[in-house]
Amino acid sequence: MPRRCAGGPDAEMPYLNVVEVESALQLVAATHPGFTELVTLPHRTWENRVCRAVRVAADLATARPPVVVIAGVHAREWGGPDILVSFLERLTAAAAAGAEICLAGYAVSSADVERIVGGLDVVVFPQVNPDGRVLDAPGRQRAMAHQSASAAGGRRGCESQLRLAVGLPSPFRPAVARPR
């Protein structure tokens, strides 16, 4: 049965789909090429989809302490990817304009936006599991089966790929120096 929303039994689902999330990432990176980078992960998903993230940093050539924000790990976590797309759009628009980020009851000053973009590598990965999002979409809901890495031809999950794509140290290799 398709998802129903608060607007009544015939209301459509108000969330972005996989293509819309991907388009938003590409648009943000194209709109702000001076301080954003569209990161394409090196391996495809189980269902052969490409995963991307956006890196935001004032100087893309210099590594800074990373802050990685992820969402959409589980198929039925619908709000997270949309929230991260909104966060990314607000952060990049504020950084480009030298402005603050205003939310209801809260604001991030322009100085704080500048400190975030100037002092960190902010990596926004809103759609860790696009396959699950597609499988759980209205009209496509079905039982989801887990696949093993061998059945997927050695493909890796997107979350482990991100670490490789943006050069983050592995939490399982403590000998690797971490930025402070």
What does this structure look like?
- The protein has five helices and six strands.
- The chain is an alpha+beta fold.
- It has one domain (20-142, 149-164): Zn peptidases (Aminopeptidase), CATH 3.40.630.
- Strands 1-2-6-3 form a four-stranded mixed sheet, with helices on both faces. The chain has a two-stranded antiparallel ribbon with strand order 4-5.
- A hairpin with a 2-residue loop joins strand 4 (101-103) and strand 5.
- The radius of gyration is 18 Å and the shape is globular.
- The model is unreliable at 1-9, 141-152 and 171-180 (pLDDT under 50).
End-to-end gap: 49 Å
Number of helices: 5
**Secondary-structure element pattern, one letter each:** HEEEHEEHEHH
Beta-strand residue fraction:
5-15%
Give the neighbour order of strands across the main sheet: 1-2-6-3
- What is the mean pLDDT? 79
Can you tell me the number of structural domains? 1
Gross morphology is globular
Number of E-state strands:
6
Q: What is the makeup of the main sheet?
A: 4 strands, mixed
Q: Could you list the spans in which at least 5 consecutive residues all have pLDDT below 50?
A: 1-9, 141-152, 171-180
CATH level 4 superfamily: Zn peptidases
Radius of gyration: 18 Å
Class computed from helices, strands and strand pairing: alpha+beta
The fold-level CATH name is Aminopeptidase
What is the fold's blueprint, element by element?
Blueprint: H1 18-31, E1 36-40, E2 52-56, E3 66-70, H2 79-97, E4 101-103, E5 106-108, H3 110-119, E6 121-125, H4 130-135, H5 158-165
Parallel strand pairs: 3-6
Antiparallel strand pairs: 1-2, 2-6, 4-5
Helix pairs in contact: 1-2
